[in-house]
Each structure stands twice: as C-alpha cells, then as structure tokens.
Amino acid sequence: MSYTRKPALDAFRATFPYTIPMMTGFLFLGVAYGIYMKSLGFNALYPILMAATIYAGSVEFIVAGLLITDFDPWNTFLIALMVSGRQFFYSISMLTKYSKTGKKKGLLIATLVDESFSLNYLAKIPPHIDRGWYMLSVSLLLYTYWVTGAALGALFGTMLPFDLKGVEFAMTALFIVIFAEQWIKEKSHASSLLGIGVTVTCLLIFGKNHFLLPTLFGIWLILTLFRSQFEAILSRECHTETQGDKV
Prior knowledge:
Elements: H1 7-39, H2 45-53, H3 57-66, H4 73-84, H5 86-93, H6 104-110, H7 114-122, H8 131-156, H9 169-185, H10 190-206, H11 212-225, H12 227-246
C-alpha cells in the first residue's frame, strides 16, 4: 500500500471513514444542543463557546439549564463531577494507549470522551500509520463534529423543517452496535459478561440515577484484582487471531 510521508495526513485519511458513524450522531446531538440553548434565550455564541471549551455533551445540556437558575457553582461542580466521573476510569484504561505519543498526549487527554475512548481503544491501527497521529485524528475529528453541530444548531437550527425530539438516542444506539460488533469479534466473552453483570448488579442496588459510578468502580476493581487472568485471556485471543490471519 502506498502512502505519503505526512503522518498526520495519512492518519486523517485512515480515520475519517472510521468516524463517519459517530459524525452522524455528533452532528445531530450538537444541533439539538444548539437549538436547546437558543430556546433558553442564549445568543449563538454561548453554545459554540461551551461546546468548544466544556466538550462533554451531557454536562453541557445540564449546564444550560443551570445557567437560568440561581447561581450555585458548588452544586454545578458536583453535578458535573458525577456526570463525567466515568472519564477517570476511561483515562486509566488509556494510559498504555497514550504512552509514547509525545506532545500529542495533552490534546489526546483533553479530547477524551466516551466515543473517542471507544474508537481508539478498539482500533486496529494499520502498521504504516503513526499510532499517536491516528488516535489524535480520531479525537480531533469527533471534537470538530460536536462543535460544528452546536454551531449549526445555534445559528440555523430553528429553520429545520423536522422535529429533533428523541435524537439523543442516536448515540445510545451507536454504542449498542459497537458492543455487538465487539461481542462478535471476541473468542471469550469474559470482559463483556463482566461489564453486563456488574452493570445489572449496580442498577438493582443503586437505582438508575446512581448506578454509573459504582458500576465503573466495580469493573475497574475487578479488572485490577484479576488483571493477570484477563491479560491471559486477551493474549490467547490475539494469538488465535494471528494464527487465523496466517492461515
């Protein structure tokens, strides 16, 4: 396969088709967010700046509502921490992935969201593509989609001829597809079953409003305590896949 000597351009060409499904969800949600902010009476500049600086979809929708209530920075901080606390566990999982990426690491950390975690963690990077540029390209493309969607919603959303109610389910559906694809690829479903089991258990114990952080902590704790066993399973899967490719 021929490629240029420009690693950033090579990475963009490899990752753009890979991010197209996410682009659809990001643009729709971004437009919905821009329209929502506009409906609350905010100038278009507010959703654009918030999308560019906060870059956390759930938090941005929450903050939009908090901006029209009494000033309460401590409560806002706690809510944002609880909603985005899962990023702490994502970051631990990405320590190895983001190692040896040089100056790109800062941007990779700043643009780590659910979707960039999913795509970069599961990515099979072609051997001729620089790993750091590949992951950064994914993250920056997703960031661009979100800010663009918010800007379009804020500036032109009220002109759309259709109802965007319920569009937030697009990203949920996308994650279901990603999970299904990963399940099909797995030889052993140990990690997937672990995630499902811990999630259901925490949902039953803590309820739907408080189960997320206990779930993430529980999965992280089990993976830490039984790290060697899970690494052995993954090693066997990779070895089997390699042997299959050779055949």
